[in-house]
Specification:
alpha/beta; OB fold (Dihydrolipoamide Acetyltransferase, E2P); five-stranded mixed beta barrel; 5 helices; 6 strands; about 25% helix
């Protein structure tokens, strides 16, 4: 009898939980065009806003993927891609194939550039670096290089 009461109470608690927060894009906010360099100059200004940026992609194919802009000294931002969702989109799938299916994993021997929509997350105790959560890949271009 006690177990039934606990389960019933648990069910009520779960039923009362609010929906998970929507992304800025899902809330209908207009993305801000920005560069990797500008984000790194003042990340707090762009926190939790939908951002559009074009950049080169760098990845070791295992541990990290980042967006890179050679025009400034702090021209890199770590990214997080939800591949389960992004791979289903044409451009997200093209980026995934370029990174992981063509040649060796990552960007060694490849040049990959793209335009991305994402939301900036500032460092937390769980993840100590600023990172861009990529929600959509608008455009991607990949080619083989000699390096």
């Amino acid at each position: 009898m006690l177990l039934v009461r606990i389960l019933a109470a648990t069910t009520v608690i779960f039923a009362q939980l609010p929906n998970w927060p929507a992304t800025a894009l899902e809330r209908g906010e207009t993305p801000v065009h920005v560069t990797v360099c500008r984000i790194n100059e003042n990340p707090e200004m762009y926190q939790a806003k939908p951002l559009i940026l074009s950049a080169s992609v760098r990845s070791d194919g295992t541990h990290y993927t980042s967006l890179f802009d050679a025009s400034c000294s702090q021209g890199m931002i770590i990214t997080w891609f939800n591949w389960a969702t992004l791979r289903k989109e044409p451009n997200g799938g093209a980026l995934y194939r370029a990174l992981y299916r063509k040649g060796s994993p990552g960007t060694i021997g490849k040049a990959i550039v793209g335009t991305f929509i994402g939301t900036l997350e500032l460092p937390t105790t769980e993840y100590p670096r600023t990172r861009l959560k990529v929600d959509q890949v608008l455009e991607v271009h990949a080619r083989q290089t000699s390096d």
